[in-house]
Specification:
By secondary structure, the chain is α+β, with helices and mostly antiparallel strands. The protein has three domains: 4-92, Sandwich (Jelly Rolls); 93-156 and 266-302; 171-265, Jelly Rolls. The protein contains nine helices and 14 strands. It has helices spanning 57-62, 86-92, 95-127, 130-135, 137-150, 160-166, 229-234, 259-265, 267-300, and strands at residues 4-8, 13-15, 23-36, 44-49, 54-55, 69-82, 176-180, 185-187, 196-201, 203-208, 216-222, 225-227, 241-244, 249-254. Strands 1, 2, 3, 4, 5 and 6 form a six-stranded antiparallel beta sheet that branches. It has a four-stranded antiparallel beta sheet with strand order 7-14-9-12. It has a four-stranded antiparallel beta sheet with strand order 8-13-10-11, with no helix packed on it. Strand 3 (23-36) and strand 4 (44-49) form a beta hairpin. The longest helix has 34 residues, at 267-300. The N and C termini lie far apart (54 Å).
Length: 302
């Protein structure tokens, strides 16, 4: 099929929700609108895609049905990249790897903020009386609409494809390798650390409020695992603490400037990082929809 440019007129559908995707796109000119439930009474606009941005990438990274419908807003030109041409697309310009990763990282970050907002609203609803619930209606409606338009999409994403891919993973093209003793922090909440990590040996625990009375462990990681990618891609302070749970916990530290050499020597590692980001985005989105479902059910009991 090859990488090709396509044009669409205002209102034309670029991709359809539910279709099996064989390619992803970069918007070259114009803008496009993202809808859930497009054409139905409860359709909802989710986002606007702008020039330079990517869309449809999750379908090829995880072989998952399209999660939304994309519609041209005005005259639009896109670049269509088939999944089997991904490495050729990156080889032409390795900066595209960084651009795609940063784009996915920003989407994960935005989705986490939406989930945090929904969780806070859910807590307010649980504590509110009837009059308070009424005053929260404008905030509630957004989440009710989101659930109604996406309720058939609440399916826990499978990590099976990611696990299978890791079976062929190698440590070729590694960045900096560091070994930690049990109990040593790899990074701490609030740190500025523009890098990500690959866990090769040992175990890592991810904590919120580590060392405080309200400490919570949010994840247990074993090899091969990726973590800390948001620090690499968004340059935001660390939102959690990573602790080595065993002696001889070995991690690779990856900076943006390492990605080109890693791609040249071990492209499967780049594939896995992209799959990890896609899986994480889908997981956060699913958690968000579950929270919207709880908000809807609680509000309907008023």
């Amino acid at each position: 099929m090859g990488i090709i440019e396509k044009t669409f007129r205002n209102g034309e559908i670029i991709i359809n929700e539910g279709d099996i995707g064989r390619s992803f796109f970069q918007l070259l000119e114009g803008s496009a609108l993202v809808y859930a439930g497009f054409g139905k009474n409860d359709q909802i606009k989710l986002a606007t895609i702008k020039e330079g941005e990517y869309f449809g990438e999750m379908s090829i990274l995880e072989e998952y049905p399209r999660s939304a419908t994309i519609v041209a807003s005005g005259n639009v030109k896109v670049l269509e990249i088939p999944g089997d041409e991904l490495r050729a697309y990156f080889s032409e310009d390795t900066d595209r790897i960084i651009k795609l990763m940063i784009y996915l990282g920003n989407r994960v970050d935005a989705m986490i903020k939406d989930q945090n907002e929904a969780s806070e609203l859910l807590n307010q609803l649980k504590e509110a009386d009837a009059s308070k619930k009424k005053s929260l209606f404008s905030m509630i409606k957004k989440h009710v609409d989101m659930y109604q338009s996406n309720k058939n999409m609440i399916i826990e994403p499978s990590a099976e494809a990611l696990r299978d891919a890791k079976e062929v993973f190698s440590d070729e093209g590694s960045g900096e390798l560091v070994s930690y003793t049990k109990g040593a922090p790899i990074f701490s909440e609030g740190d500025d650390a523009p890098c990500m990590y690959v866990l090769y040996a040992g175990k890592v625990g991810i904590y919120q409020n580590y060392g405080k009375a309200d400490q919570v462990k949010t994840a247990d990681l074993e090899s091969v695992a990726f973590f800390g990618e948001m620090g690499l891609l968004t340059e935001a302070p660390r939102s959690s603490t990573a602790i080595a749970e065993t002696d001889n916990t070995c991690v690779e530290i990856i900076y943006l400037e390492d990605l080109e050499s890693i791609y040249r020597t071990c492209p499967v590692k780049i594939d896995l990082i992209l799959r990890h980001l896609s899986y994480r985005l889908r997981k956060v989105n699913n958690d968000f929809l579950i929270t919207c479902k709880e908000i809807t059910e609680l509000y309907n009991k008023r």
